[in-house]
Amino acid sequence: MQLTIDGIATEAAAGESLLDIVRRLGLDSADLKTRPLAANIAGETFTLNYIPLREAGAAANQRVTLRRAMRAANGTVSLLRYDNARGNRVYERTMLFVFLLAMRELYPKTRVRINYAVGAGLFASVGDGMRLSQQDVDRIKKAMREIVNADLTLERKRVDIDDAIDFFSADGQDDKVRLLKYRQFSYFDVYRQDDYVDYFYGEMAPSTGYASVFDLQAQKGGLLLLRPSSEDPNKPAKHVSLPRLSGVFSESEEWGKLMHCGVVADLNDMVLNGEIRTLIRVNEALHEKRFAQLADEIIARGARAVLIAGPSSSGKTTSANRLCTQLRVHGKTPVLVSLDDYYLNREALVPGPDGTIDLEDIATLDIAQFQDDLTRLLRGEEVELPRFDFIRQHRCDVGHKLRIDESAPLVIEGLHGLNPMLLPDAVDKKLIFRLYVSALTTLNLDDHNRVPTTYLRLLRRMVRDHETRGASVERTLSMWDSVRAGEEKWIFPFQEDADAIFNTTLIYEPAVLKKHIFPLLGAVQPESVYYDEARSIVKFLNYFVEANVEDEIPPTSILREFVGGNTFYR
User: Fold this and answer.
1) Residues paired with 193 in a beta bridge
2) The three-state (H, E, C) secondary structure of 297-352, written as one string
3) In total, how many domains does the chain have?
């Protein structure tokens, strides 16, 4: 039967896997830039071990037919490589499997937890604060390399949920046992290599040989597993120390321990036994305490302006307002300023080589006017602040006149708040306090499956885009890659320059967001190019027990910025 693989028409035989076809067509490669890792079929991600045609059964008259996904795709397959977001995740899962398999061989009784991503690496804690020497690191790398060179097949198998629970229980993976008890389906897909069984809630490459590019470094409290470089995937990324960001992750993990909530099963237990309300109060109190501490630091510095930056849906606006409240406790009368009001008129923006305008680019701001306004305000002069009309995409004719003194610190919020290009040379940098806010979740599905920080921000944005702009999930997803690219270029490079980093994540929020976003995800049809992404989010949220506790969430909570009811916007 005829299939089309990356635009190439070919005849496929019954029992022939996608990998067989890829190799027959000469599409496989040792170069990670071009090597297929998985396949996109009808919007879903499939392992290359997938067999598109059903094999003929015992009956002589039984015909060979295309399988469900292949029928839906009319026999069309797109190959996923490392430069694709889905392909990238396939590689990461495979690399983690190799790492955990090596750890099991060398330290069979030691608990390994994939904690969070920092820079180009994944931080893994080993044992109970187990210290690893360079010799240990070298042994693990050697074991990983041997596993890669052996090119061991990663067998995907569907098992009964009760059998999966029994197996993981006997294997000592109690974190998975607790999570699977909340699974809503009677089956569970696992990956097996010999006697090691694990799962990473998504597809993996066909064999361990695909995870050929990695590096491993000792870190305080564990190991840093480095992914391939974004510039050249055939080389491992260089580790760039991010002490402030790492410190915030560590602090957030301690918060999780304080609240006895480190994995999804912990949160689910709290929802079901009613402890979720206490969790909300404690989590919100921790946020308020941190805002108060930030205000103390700003006052102690004698800062006249606070610059706040952060990625999309990090809670910048609410953070700015709550910080203002705490500054008022010190007898100050802070003034909120949005960098969005400094956007240039749309007709003044210069398109890039591809004819499109990058709205994330700092060149879309009137930097000269901002610098002049900031300089004059700090001198005590009166200025007329601009106002931008986003409907007209044009500056308003009349702005807002403002004069401040030392009792009225400026709180300036915007995408480029930490970019040094914003600050004029004439301003004393000691008068500026720079704050970076982001949603850095440390809540894991289980020991081996972290929740990407971008996931939480994406959920927030989906809900907010729908509630405030009437946008569909597909609309939000269509913009997300561009948003993420802008963050990588214009926000993340400056996060370590901040005077402080504030984590806006609320441990309980996925359980609250679930009811808001489930109906939106259900509207995405299989023929949509975003179906697989929506399906993946549904599978993720299915592990959470829904919490109907919005009456407990304070009106000033960061979560209110997304689900509604925030008193700052009345």
Assistant:
1) 196
2) HHHHHCCCEEEEECCCCCCHHHHHHHHHHHHHHCCCCCEEEEHHHHECCHHHCCCC
3) 2
Q: DSSP label at 208?
A: G
Q: Given 50, 81, 112, which residue is the final one in a domain?
A: 81
Spatial distance between the Cα atoms of 277 and 64, rounded to a whole number of angstroms: 56
* Domain span at 75: 2-81
Instruction: For residue 410, list its beta bridge partners.
Output: 305, 335
217 domain residue, yes or no = no
Pairing of strands 305-309, 410-413: parallel
Residue 227 lies in a domain: no
In tens digits, what is the pLDDT along the chain, a chain of 570 residues? 789 999 999 998 888 999 999 999 999 999 999 999 999 998 889 999 999 987 655 444 556 677 888 888 889 999 999 998 889 999 999 999 999 999 999 999 899 999 999 888 999 999 877 788 999 999 999 999 999 999 999 988 889 999 999 999 998 889 999 999 998 888 888 888 888 888 888 899 999 999 999 999 998 889 999 999 988 999 999 988 888 888 898 888 888 888 889 999 999 999 999 999 999 999 999 999 999 999 999 999 999 999 999 999 999 999 999 999 999 999 999 999 999 999 999 888 888 787 777 878 898 999 999 999 999 999 999 999 999 988 888 989 888 899 999 999 999 999 899 999 999 988 999 999 999 999 998 889 999 998 888 889 999 999 999 988 888 999 999 999 888 888 989 999 999 999 999 999 999 999 999 999 989 998 998 888 888 889 888 888 999 999 999 999 999 999 999 999 988 865
Supply the CATH number for residue 338's domain. Answer: 3.40.50.300
Rounded CA separation 538/203 (Å): 16
pTM for the whole structure? 0.89
Q: Which of 81, 96, 121 is the last residue of a domain?
A: 81
